[in-house]
Model the fold of this input.
Amino acid sequence: MRRILLWKGLTVLGLALLLLIPLSMIQGQIEARNQRQAEVKANVAASAAGRQQLVGPLLVVAYTEQVTHETTNEKTGQTLRKTTEVQGHQVLAPKDLQIQGEAHVEERHRGLYKAQLYHLNAKLTGRFAIPSDFGLDLSRRSITLGRSYLVVGIPDLRGLRKQPRLTWDGKAFDVGTTAKWSNVPHGIQADLGKLDIRETRSFDFELPLELTGSQSLSIAPVGENTQMSLRSDWPSPSFGGRFLPLDHQIGDQGFVAHWQVSALARNLDRILRTEGNASTEEAFEVAFIEPVNVYLQTERAVKYGFLFVGMTFAGFFFFELLRRLRIHPMQYLLVGFALAMFFLLLLSLTEHIPFLWAYLAASGASIVLLGTYLVHVLRSAKHGLGFAAGLTLLFGVLYGLLMSEDNALLMGSVLLFAALATVMLATRRLDWYGLSEKPPELDPTKPQN
Done:
């Protein structure tokens, strides 16, 4: 038995593997452009403002403490006492904290690439229930109380579009940048002066904020009872952090979300241990992600490229066997290049038009080209258009895989099973040993039905 069938099969497999080279080159181009997109986002954040996390407001009370140290002389046994002044501060959290915010998202472009900035208009209101002497035991410690400050941690102060003004107990206070308090996040503060707290008192406050940031916004729930409502025109939020919203509504016009966190759920010490501008995980977060990342979708499409080529070549191979029609390896290769060109067209078009229209244009151009070519290669309009119809179905299935990420594995498995079942049923009566016989000569000028 001659080995024509074996060698033809190995040739087709080799051509399919050869087409991995252009597919990998296209995937490399996608990764480079996706990396450029990430660089643009970082550049916009560096020029405007980065991720923002609000921590506060917190009440910080400065004090000076007289500390006495005793030392004993080992030779004389004499005890020496030395008194020094130590600067310290007490941090108090609000009893109640309500945050009402609205975020408008703006797209900034750098050539073909874009990044999102959000503009937050928020109002922080609430109440501090301050214990006598700020919770410090003045009977056992020699402490002189100093000034009090209301502090709000904001990592990137460039995002403040307007200098806020605090209303504390009915009085207005100017807001400036914070001093370098240990275990208190960097941000803004208002000098409240010296508060006389000889017995427990409550103070109401109100602080409006206009803040710009990029990528995500998070809030650390420092209050004993923290409530927040956030409204935005962005239709694709991603909620994260340790605390998910109690309820939310997401639509084409944006989203509305509500949070509520009690002191039993949050860890204030962990929030205050955050160093520098680092973010704390004790927060609720909203990320303003792209609704469709065209580069990731195109990359996913390219990953199915070998499946595309393999199924098309398999169809050619079995058609060649069943119809006894010779298809030259160069014709296999040209069809494979046409399929690879689809992914390059898809990448270039998605940078200018929506993904759906780019997919329709790229797949439509590929189907018309391949259908026209296959009518002549297969020497039959019926067979050529039939293959074009099969490719149309294959492109439709691929789009379904891209749009339904959660069901991609299921749909891909069903597709492969259907392809295998079709091949097995179509060849169940095939005499494989008879395929090695020399096929009859065909008149190339006479169309075959």
Observations:
- The chain has nine helices and 16 strands.
- The CA atoms of residues 151 and 189 lie 4 Å apart.
- Residues 4-37+294-436 form one domain.
- The chain has two domains: 4-37+294-436, 51-69+77-288.
